[in-house]
Amino acid sequence: MSSKIFVDACLGKETPYTPVWMMRQAGRYLPEYMAVRAEAGDFLNLCHNPEKACEVTLQPVDIVGVDAAILFSDILVIPDEMGMDLSFVKGEGPKFSDPIETEADIDRLIGGEEAADKLTYVYDTIKLIREQLADDKALIGFTGAPWTLATYMIEGQGTKTYNICKKMMYANPTLLHKILAKVTEVVKYYMEKQIEAGIDVVQIFDSWAAAIEPSMYDEFSWKYMVEIADYLKSKYPHIPIIMFPKGVPAFLDQVYGNFDVFGVDWGTPMALAKEKLGDRYVLQGNMEPCRLYSKEATTSCVEGIQEIMGGKRHIFNLGHGILPDVPVEHAKHFVSECQRVSGK
Amino acid sequence: MSSKIFVDACLGKETPYTPVWMMRQAGRYLPEYMAVRAEAGDFLNLCHNPEKACEVTLQPVDIVGVDAAILFSDILVIPDEMGMDLSFVKGEGPKFSDPIETEADIDRLIGGEEAADKLTYVYDTIKLIREQLADDKALIGFTGAPWTLATYMIEGQGTKTYNICKKMMYANPTLLHKILAKVTEVVKYYMEKQIEAGIDVVQIFDSWAAAIEPSMYDEFSWKYMVEIADYLKSKYPHIPIIMFPKGVPAFLDQVYGNFDVFGVDWGTPMALAKEKLGDRYVLQGNMEPCRLYSKEATTSCVEGIQEIMGGKRHIFNLGHGILPDVPVEHAKHFVSECQRVSGK
Q1: Residues of A in contact with B169 (CB under 8 A)
Q2: How is chain A split into domains, by residue range?
Q3: What's the confidence (pLDDT) of residue A2?
Q4: Which of B88, B113, B135, B250 has the fewest C-beta atoms lying within 10 Å of its C-beta?
């Protein structure tokens, strides 16, 4: 048995209590995070600065008491290092100045290990965290799913309708697959290098899974996530992999692949996820993050999830990222309630 | 049997072919619409102008060949006439200058029939359409669901996170229910007056249904929609009611109420909707609107839906609104393919 109960729980082993962490736990709701971010200048500077990225990664472990740290970074550093010019415009979010429109646009991007090798600041951050993180806490590394990354690379920014990438999906699927395949290759090397640098667990975030109709989700996203998982499992079978496709309750019957944990978003009832997937995968989740606005709403949800999962093959988490205006005290309450109901 | 096959289909009667319409069919993809809108000045002026609103309502019936016209208007005229100050900021969407924060804010709003009486331009538009619409075509009137309307009234604009209204949902549910109840009362009168003015069918759009976790959806949205349907059915049992809650595949097992048609969004597989609801409700939908970018993707989807529904208890539609950059020719192709596969 490993000394990290989070890793054990991911692998489906019995643990003395149910571990807990929160998506976006190193984030703007923490005054300590805001202070470091202000020192760093802007968000991208913070991602590029191993000392400061390490510091904010560790903050929620110390302040909120979660069982795992998650690497502080951004999913879009991947296309940035593939040669797309990433910037964050205040109040507008991420922008790429030259979105992908043609095959030539894809060909000019840096691919494979060469792109992954450029993400040294991420690996350096991981090594620093590893030195400072307590032995009983796990470190989660992560990547965006190829589909989610591709949406930004094609739209040039966040989108409500995804109409540019969906036009490509239906009118020129070969081009979209070419982008997805190229990103998938980079992600394989990127996650391998994160593992070599010291992460304990991999999470693949498909934040925009719900933008794809259920009958097409496997073809344009899930199969690429599975390809990444297969690659990593063939080399690092002891490293647990968490898949988090947000907003796919209608896809649960089709879920397959060699990974360990299925991250359940808050729109997917935990009981449904348990019924469909609980025998095959450990389940992570899934409190609605807005319940953190109320201690009572938090407690009743944590108790409800515990009743469904019974402390078996489960990791407590939110069903999406914590929002910036949640009081820190409420985040602590969530963590302590998860510990209380699961017997810590 | 009515002379309108769309109305017959809504009521579950056999029809010679499966009728078809498209959400947002009177919209920006039509050059003829853009011309009228330019004459009107802006979007809200167009809503307030019965002659021009009538003209754009009728356009898709003539140009694209759908079986039903849907009243051209906006869901937000309701809170506007309740006394909130609505404006549309170019490129940013709708804004209310003074969002609801307190009980006093709710109390100062105009309620019930008094608010509904102020929407005369809507009823005048309906009367004009009625005079000009062919006898075999149906006219759909509509409203936003109280929840969807409340999100704008509370946030003051569109939102990605709904964090202000969800904070209210979890921390002050009584206040949210007070807003929802007040909006529900206005909507009852509003839809009654639309019926009296001449609409054939009611559709209730809950565009932001997916913002509520499945276990809370009934309490904060569905029950209010059912209350509106009950009220209308008690007075106008012959008027079909279509419920369209967008993005609720995980809620299908809990759907109840006295209405006729369930609008299936594109994220909910038609086969799943048929299995769960097909015996009790006629199903409308559900092609992914982005499939309109490709004639081939359109045809294969229309054929797939026809195979599932078999031309019974079904209305063809998109699973959400048509996007502005779809070629008109592709919209016509969708309509003609629906007619072809269903034997018109």
Answers
A1: 290
A2: 5-341
A3: 62
A4: B135
